[in-house]
Fold:
Amino acid sequence: MSLSIPRGTRDYDPVDSIALHGIMHDVEQTFRSFGFCPLETPSVESLEVLSAKAYGEESRKEIFLLEDGQEGLRYDFTVPMARYIAMNRDLQFPFKRYQIGSVWRMDEPQKMRQREFLQADIDIAGSSEISSEAEVIGATATALRRVGIREYSIFINSRMILDLALGHFGLPKEKHAAAIRLIDKMQKIGRDEVGAGIVRLGIDQRKCDDLLDFMSRPGSNEEKLEAAAAELDGAQEEVKRLEKVFSLLKLYDITGRLEIDLSLARGLDYYTSTIFEFVAFDDGKRLPTIAAGGRYDGLISIYSKRDVPAVGSSIGIARIFELLGKTAMRKTYAIVHVSYIKEENLEHAVRAVQRLREAGICADLEVTKRKLSKQLEYTSSMGTAYTMIIGEKEVAIGKIRLRNMIDGSEELLSLDEAIVKLS
Structure:
């Protein structure tokens, strides 16, 4: 039998898993500190829900369908949340929720892009206020800082401004969604290919060049927004909205650089206003997006007769893991391994390890009959910080021997003293 795993998936060994769960823990604690509550939805949703009009034709192609063809694996957490809100009419608004777990996309696997990957989402449903955008972006930035990512750029735009620009330069309204999906690929396929695709959608080359020049306009954030307000009819209110978002974000502890990017599109059809992407760089080279989101005021009404404004953000947990690399070499959460020398000391070892666990200390118990030297080799290979040794001498005097596996030092302690030291 030739064993393999499906394309676009991967195993996480214990070292990787501990680092991965550490990232998820820090992100979750950040979300909780911002007042978001947990929500769990099924991995499987009906195809009717997943392929709603607001989702976009291109996204439908990336849905993992189940055998019956009526259901598929969730593509993100936003659509399941919208479905949940539509089904639960007694929810109190604003509804602030987070969800962390796996999502699946029938995408072409490549570096930092898998078919199954971990995501962490936050959303605020029931508020159209600018403060909700600031809270979502601020919480995302705080989570990144907490896991150790401090240098990045936050690119911000408005889907409304992008729509107005497409219309201003002559693209028919019915072609906007297709153009936005092309523009979303700008970093991948380049300006020339995006421009050629937009021309095929129905505007002449000169107007297409003017559009691309507008989107790639240099200058400060203020200059870009001033240009949008001056050149695009109807953009003034949306420009004021973005200016207010920037003003509020200055009050958050954001270590990244805030930048208006008039070419930012975000490919999903359901975005309606503010959109953003968090991007890290490696020696000046732009890396895949590590977090992104935006406002999607019309999505929930697709599943319900209610209009519920909403804004959200997704953090790519797997991408952050790849970016940070292996930050530790521990293969276990146990900080102490309880070893015993002879069979008659086993009961003493079990009592000791149970006391440690009751005190909230992650402790491993030796479960083989190997020699002490082999037990110590195992403890060292697992990255466990301490070994607690229990033998005849230790039992006779009511003590334990605590060995530091880093520097090799030992102490003869009572169990209570050891618990204090390890806590």
